[in-house]
Amino acid sequence: MKVVIVGCTHAGIAAATEILKAHPDTEVTIYERNDNVSFLSCGISLYLNGQVKRLEDMFYATPEDLAKQGAKVRIRHDVLSIDTKTHQLIVENLDNKKVFTDNYDKLIMSTGSYVVVPPLMGIDDSHVLLCKSYEQAKQIYTSAQTHKHITIVGGGYVGVELAEAYADTDHEVTLIQSHGQVLNNYVDKTLSDQITSLLKKHGVHVYLNERVEAFQGDDQNDKVIIQTDKTSHEADLAIVSTGFMANTDLLRGQVDMDRHGAILINDYLQTSNPDVYAAGDACISHFNPAHNDAYIPLATNAVRQGALAGKNIFGEVQKYMGTQATSAMELFGYTLASSGLTVAGAKKEGLNAASVVYKGNYRPSYMPTTDMLTIVLVYDRSNRRILGAQLYSKHEVAQSANTISVCIQNNNTIDDLAFVDMLFQPHYDEPFNYLNLVAQLAIEQERQAQKVK
User: Fold this and answer.
1) Helix, strand, or coil here: 151?
2) pLDDT tens-digit map of 130-177
């Protein structure tokens, strides 16, 4: 069987590796239009603030690695079109400009995503950069050496991480967010307010509820003017990080997609065309807390979907379990982690959601040191099912978000979490772990609500 993989970042590498490990006789051809594979864009901020010394270290695989496994790796090859009826592709070699035709038995689309570029005047100015690819990362790093005042447009994960990286390297930083809070897809306002305060404490100018409308370059003074619906901001450079869109134009009109252009897949990563599979940022994910399909461009989803696509092109071997969109970040020495729905997000989904907030030391106060911990636990009042959680502390609480992820995956309730067996050791926690304690708060909140009724 001949398998063609279009696009080779996280999902494409996982798919190729899985195929060649289990079915080494398969003919696997990979087309990638860049001159590299496997770039971890999450490392851009780490490179910017000096925690990662070489940007090249953010590649975890090379074309040579895949070739050694048996794949035919065609980097700097751009797939111009795909005809799913004839199982053919038209490809251009970007080095010699030759165009040729190839064919496949099974196709895996792992073409990833691209930065959403708002249709704003001046977005293509030389003082305005995007943030995702290896080449963009190099531009951002180089520009940081000569530009002092940076304005970041977008207060999601990428924008907040960049704000920290620039602030840590003695830049003046402005962060503009159109929403009323930063990280609105990941945390509720309780924690978002703490994050905003932390950013401001480290010198970041944060502007909320302010929408960017245009950029105007000032080449004479080497500046850019960022015009918003409220005022204007001057900076040496603007970085746009306003989200991602699925890169799926090659299959438009040939497989089913959602209204945003993300490819729809079944439990086995198969599209509406039985010979075409999709994985990673090119397709939707099943979002378990809301029991619906959503576009969630995360590397964790990509590697799992890619590996499963590699398994399932040979038959329905293993179902995709869906995602809780679990993620974490380190910000000025604090860990912020989340899994599942925020209470605001849950209510938008029409769920009867409520939340409780736990605040306390992560371990006993008699220990030499301890740190405060905040947990927001979100649950469904109708069936007491856990919907999500957010954790914030100087203590490393990221792994607790993984525990919450398993609880959501398994449809556990606040009653389950309140008394599930967890270790006690004064170095790590109290006799009841903090996840037990926040669930017990939720139980008490429901008990009091019943009394009122």
Assistant:
1) strand
2) 877 778 878 888 888 888 999 999 999 999 999 999 999 899 999 999
Q: What is the DSSP string of 227-250?
A: EESS-EEEESEEEE---EEE--GG
Long-range contacts of 120-125 (CB under 8 A, 24+ apart): 120/212, 120/213, 120/214, 120/215, 121/213, 121/214, 121/215, 121/216, 122/214, 122/215, 122/216, 122/217, 122/224, 123/215, 123/240, 125/215, 125/216, 125/217, 125/224
Cβ atoms within 10 A of the Cβ of 363, count?
Answer: 20
What are phi and psi for residue 405, nearest 5 degrees? Answer: -60, -45
- Give the amino acid at 77: H
pLDDT value of residue 7: 95
8 is catalytic: no
Checking phi first, is residue 222 left (phi over 0); if not, alpha (psi -120 to 50) or beta?
left
Catalytic residue among 8, 10, 171, 407: 10
Full strand arrangement of the beta sheet holding 205-207? 128-130, 237-240, 149-153, 172-176, 205-207
**How would you class 17 by CB atoms within 10 Å of its CB: exposed for 0-12, middle for 13-18, buried for 19 or more?**
buried
* Half-sphere CA count of 369, side-chain side, radius 13 A: 3
Residues 6 or more apart from 290 whose CB is under 8 A from it? 341, 345, 346, 349, 351
Given the residues 42, 149, 202, 205, the one annotated as active site = 42
Phi-psi region of 151 (alpha: psi -120 to 50; beta: other; left: phi over 0): beta
- For the chain, the distance separating the N- and C-terminal CA atoms, rounded to the nearest angstrom, is 64
- Average pLDDT of 371-392? 98
Cα-to-chain-centroid distance, residue 438 = 26
Percent pLDDT > 70 in the chain is: 99
What are 445-451's contacts with CB under 8 Å, separation 24+?
445/354, 445/356, 446/381, 446/384, 446/414, 449/381
Question: Angle of helix 10-22 relative to helix 299-312, nearest 10 degrees?
Answer: 30
User: Cβ distance 199 to 182 under 8 Å?
Assistant: yes
Structure tokens at 93: 């070699």
Cβ distance 162 to 131 under 8 Å? yes
Can 42 be counted among the known catalytic residues?
yes
Structure tokens at 256: 């089913």
pLDDT number for residue 140: 83
Confidence check: pLDDT of 36 > 90: no
CB 280 within 8 A of CB 302: yes
